Amino acid sequence: MPARIVSVINMKGGVGKSTTTVSLAETLAHHQRRRVLVIDLDPQTNASIMVAGPEKWNGMREAERTLDFYFESYIVQQKAKPFKTLIEKQVSDLKGKPDVALCASAPEFRIVERDMIESFVKRGFQIDMIQKWILERFANGLKTVINDYDYILIDCPPGISLFAEAALIAADCILVPSIPDYVSRLGLITFRKRALRLINERRGGPSQLMVLATKYDETFSLHRSEASLLKDNLGEAMFDVRIPQHVDIAKAAEWSETQRTFEQKYGAMAKVIKALGEEFQSKVELAPAL
Question: Would you say residue 197 has pLDDT above 50?
């Protein structure tokens, strides 16, 4: 079966989006024995460095194996380098080398996006035409690897950019990590009513929405009440698992030159992350594939 494509996004930063992407990839590969590809669309490159480490990531960048070069080659040469050449396999620092691969981003990606849009606008392209061009090129790359993995997790930048929209349109599922507070809940409601509706129209069918409470503090009454409201509003779309605000989550995001067991890496949060992978798999397998 082709991979299920899951775009991980939130309109705001600081919600644990990249951490969620990487920890989910590692638990799916380690506990579920799934083949997982992480695609980092965020120029901040957090997911890339978390999952591959700064040295390997920098090597990929110097070898021109990051997404900015992929899209830039389309513009300069009218023909992209093969998408598969961007992918670095078995990048996790977990012992046993679970099947986690990476398609990395770089800070230059933001510049490429800006220059590309400016170039197209000067040539008379409308925004919807630029969006279609990006989506087609992104889809061309995904098609070459979709049968090599069980899950493709796309770490999107905060907010909505043309590249993030392309990832959302291509996705079977959209996963939104969200801190359970009032402002975030309003943002989710807006996302469902406006952005998600438009995305599904362009996609030509519904994508599955999943929401995960992150940086959750059980002792904080606001978090408890807002998490309950989210569950009431979202139903099955809301995860029962909640990711706590915990130092072991932060430590797990730091690359280790020494390989670690899953329990060593995630510490007291190992069972929570394992449960996340189990619930995720049970939810996403209900989603219709493209």
Answer: yes
